[in-house]
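Exercise 3.2. Students should predict the tertiary structure of the chain below and write it as structure tokens, then compare their answer with the key that follows.

Predict this chain's 3D structure.
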Amino acid sequence: MPPKINNVVVISDTHSGCKLALCPPEGVSLDEGGKYVPSDFQLWMWEQWRYFWDVFIPETIHDEPFYLIHNGDALDGMHHGTTTTITNNWKDQINIAEAVLADEVKKAARYYHIRGTEAHVGPSAQHEETLARILGAYPDSTGNHSRYELWLRFGVQNDILLHALHHIGSTGSQAYESTAVHKELTEAYTEAGRWGRQPPDVIVRSHRHRAYQCMMPASKETAYSIVTPAWQGKTPFTWKIPGARQSQPQFGGLILREAPDGVWYPKPFTVSFAREEPEI
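Answer key:
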């Protein structure tokens, strides 16, 4: 019988190797013998990361076991001619990701790793696969340690069905931010109905770096479609995107939990970075 795990923790878009992403306070060593020291912004973000792991998660799930899902883009890669990487050396970026994630992965009853965007993690997510293997991610049916999607059951009776993958549509207008999120859920139900399969009770997506949640009545009272925030600040690319260019970055993660009384719910954690003070 599979273990009965009542809690699922989801993180995503950690983009290790970027100067606007997570970096341990002590800094990281680089291939040529140098060392990178995090900026004040990265130190602030690390404090939020530690609050998520040291306060938010324990207060929510107490000492209960949990599955951990990294929902893609654990590495920043060498993309779009960017100048914001700490290093373009894949080995260095993987080492940074391991320094960020390894201690948290050890806390999980089982760790799953979803493949992100090829521009960040390499063709066929080959570098994310290397990282997932190093971290000991639970393999799929082919033996790969990273995967494009995950179907996972959890809960007191193992009857809550989760579907996780990285990508989802985006929008240039916050007025339509719900469109792709709700559409993803209705399409999941349509696809399940076509083939007589069980629809998911919750789908989790990432990629947009913005937290969002839709819900609708379903067999287990409510079905959810959730997008996770990221652990990366605003890169030069985001300053030209409508909707994103005026908003502050969002950081955080997600807990999916079924309480002992059988009531299950999502509990997101999202914080934002303060905007600059006006010039006088």
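Discussion points: The first strand starts at residue 7 and ends at 11. The mean pLDDT is 92.
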